[in-house]
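Morning. Coffee machine broken again, so started the prediction first thing and wrote up yesterday's gels while waiting. Chain of 181 residues, entered below exactly as on the submission form.
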Amino acid sequence: RGILLVEQGRGSFVVRDAIDYAVGPRTRFSENLLRQGRTPDTEILESVEEFATEDIARRLKVRPGRRIIRISTLGRADGRPISLARHCFPAGHVPGMIELYTKYRSVTRALKAIGIADYRRLSTYVTARLPTPDESRLLRLGMGQPLLVTEGVNADENGRPIEYAVSCFASDRVQLVVGAT
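Came back before lunch.
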């Protein structure tokens, strides 16, 4: 039935129905899932205005201590948790972002409502690591199951960084397709 994969010398494994998650110039969570006939859902875990750390300020090209908006989310496909994301935006460039993201559950739609019609990925770094206890609980993963972690910077039409995001994907449910559009 295609449920098990048997590999000589290694054993039998449950076949996972992994989602192809495109990472390219216009990476969009909902579009990635809808293209594959999946139902996307995003739960907001936290949304706050706070001061930028040196690392976040460097990525957003603002001064450390500037106000930023941070929105943390749990992403699901067909009701199954697949990702955790932390989105950071320079507060002065995204007035009303928390309210708009809460309304639309979409970075793209919230930015459009603010007047940022389009944005493009400037960079993406991909790493892997084991989950924290909270990540394991939220994604329903074993502590020994690795995460795929992406760090990306998106810029508006003028090339100004508008979002820095760190996303953690359940590696048994998602495979990253780099360079995809």
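The CA atoms of residues 116 and 156 lie 7 Å apart. Going to sketch it on the whiteboard this afternoon.
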